[in-house]
Amino acid sequence: MSSPLRTRLREALARAPARRNIGRAMAGLVDKRRAAFPDAQALEQLRDQGQAIRDQALANLPALLRELEANCRANGIEVHWARTAAEANEKVRELVQAAGTTSVLKGKSMVSEEIGLNAALAEAGIEALETDLGEWIIQLAGEAPSHIVAPAVHLDRREVAARFREHFPELEVGEEIADLTALARRLLRERFAQLRVGISGVNFLIAETGTLCLIENEGNGRLCTTLPEVHIAITGIEKVIARLDQLPPLLRLLTRSATGQPITTYVNLISGPRGTDERDGPRAVHLILLDNGRARLQADPELRATLRCIRCGACMNHCPVYTRVGGHGYGTVYPGPLGAVLEPRLHGLAAPGELAEASSLCGACAEVCPVRIPLPQLIRRVRRDRARVSPGTTGRQARLWSLWAAIMAHPARARAVTRTLALLAPVINPALHWLPSPWTRHRQPPQLARETLAKLASEEGFGDE
Amino acid sequence: MSNQHPTVIFFGTCLINTLAPRAGLAAMRLLRRAGAQVRFPRDQSCCGQPAYNAGFDDQARRVARAQLKALEGEEPIIVPSASCAGMFRHEYPRLFAGTPEQAPAQHLAERIVELCDYLQRILGVNWPDLGPPVRVALHQSCSARREMQVAAPARALLEGLAQVEVLEPARASDCCGFGGTFAVKQPDISEAMTADKAGALLATDASVLVSQDLGCLTSLEGYLRRQGAMMQVQHIAEFLWERIASPEAEALKTGDAR
Ligand code: SF4
Known about the structure:
The complex is a heterodimer of chains A (465) and B (258).
Chain A: H1 4-14, H2 16-36, H3 40-59, H4 61-74, E1 77-82, H5 85-98, E2 103-106, H6 110-114, H7 117-123, E3 127-130, H8 133-141, H9 157-167, H10 177-192, E4 197-200, E5 204-206, E6 211-216, H11 220-226, E7 230-236, E8 240-241, H12 247-259, E9 266-270, E10 284-290, H13 294-299, H14 314-318, H15 322-330, H16 336-347, H17 364-368, H18 375-389, H19 391-408, H20 411-434, H21 438-442, H22 453-459
Chain B: E1 7-10, H1 14-19, H2 21-33, E2 37-39, H3 49-54, H4 57-70, E3 77-79, H5 82-95, H6 102-111, E4 112-114, H7 115-122, E5 134-139, H8 142-147, H9 151-159, E6 164-167, H10 182-185, H11 187-203, E7 208-211, H12 214-226, E8 232-235, H13 236-244, H14 247-250
């Protein structure tokens, strides 16, 4: 009866420290976002703008991608296309090997998690060193990110210190945040200078100018993209926007929704490799554009909205389910409401589709999504598609709903059933207490009324006509 | 209101019908007290939301089609639940898009008004409070806040009562964890959410919990009872009626239902 998802969710609920850390962190982010958007009307205008920019881009996706490719090439950026995760991994491997190295620096990138890049590189004998602090911590611990913006948010500083000690037994490790970051900085910087290939994600691609925009707070992204000889950027095809002047409103929405920051510490606009007159920067820049199911989403008028996503994480920060089970409860790369609609589209409706059940459809996610993705509607769409295409997993439910419809769609039957329930209430109500059900594990069962509303209404003269 | 005696259609909702018919009756009495002529079409059953939210649109459509027929007319349709009102108002047009019922569904959607919204915003009722002083915790559902945006009128109705102190729980906009079949399909998460909500409600130290949505109330009441909490639980219609009706003549019998 219990699916892997249910088991995972139950385990996640039982992990008290992670639950506490995530709950606290999410409450903090919710407050910061609220403070960052003090003017409700201005926020709605900005959301209109953000949505329009993304919609316009998605409506013209093929043309914009061609324009992007041409302008990137003109800037000296090499553009590669990957239809699948495997193709993308293969391309990265080729490029790394062509550079003649077996270790690479990595900036934070959700797409690289999506395609399982680190594992694919490891298989080819290439070590990928995460340089984002959170990503590095969980890489040391052998864990997966638990949040798309804050990957190690399930850990507090004591747990981080414990993981450091385990990994670097020879080092002195303090428990203060300043000590931990200083240690990470020292260890990572030693490696920065040595490695010749840097891999990064991309936040936005600007078609008009052939520019890659990459935002971050730690400076590791800038180091990864300027220090090595070769920079490989990898991203989904949906990240493209038409014009450079569309970038500021999106950045404003992204950083304020994510962490409440008006802007991140670093905004990198990369428009090509090192010029002949320049003293730093990579000799070669490669852009890998990944489809992995996105073109299929673009083609569906309802699902296309999913691709508006700018990966701010606000939907999960505000989701009552995510804030209780964290990313590991979902067991997917993208967790929360966004994950519930995106994962089944990238990886199939069968197992990932079950994520859509982990929602009360409360609407908190859609209320905050900066580009107004109708997440509850898309969650329902996943449920609907599952009911249609995987009768195996939903067959019993389908029969129950059909029975329900056969009663409720016929007034005479519905009345008869309601009357019978009211009549049998004295017998059914005590039984409800004994019947095992998920409901009665935590709640007293509701009790059926002994009268119907129709009877009460007619007794008081509320007529039909 | 241009018409002094508007006629309205009342939709009782399936939960009220089976679990708390007296809340439905109270809602109709409130409407009548406010000067409306209330019609109660006998052929109504359920808005179809449970199947719709579960992803079974065909089954939901079958049931929804029966409501289109049962609720035919031009009068406003008053719904004592923000959740069912949201289904009618926002989801029917989607559910029937591209079908022959598209226009009727749209027409029905435009006639839907949530009960508190109708009483407070449209009729502007202002009733004298005949009850004793009481502290009330108000739970406003996700549909009331977000989908229907009718949280304010419900609160205003309660605040209009002289002897009623309205208390809002901490983190008031958090979901109570009910979510229809969610509570059954994901009992563990649902319980975690309900526990937090119940804790916040109990912390208000109110003696009565009131809401315009019976779904949330049923779930919260089940949880509170299991915890042995004393807080009384009532649909807002029944609470309001008890406050404004002369206690001798019109008090609702307390029996098997809320
Ligand atoms: S779905 Fe919306 S809120 Fe969630 S990560 Fe994407 S842009 Fe942000």
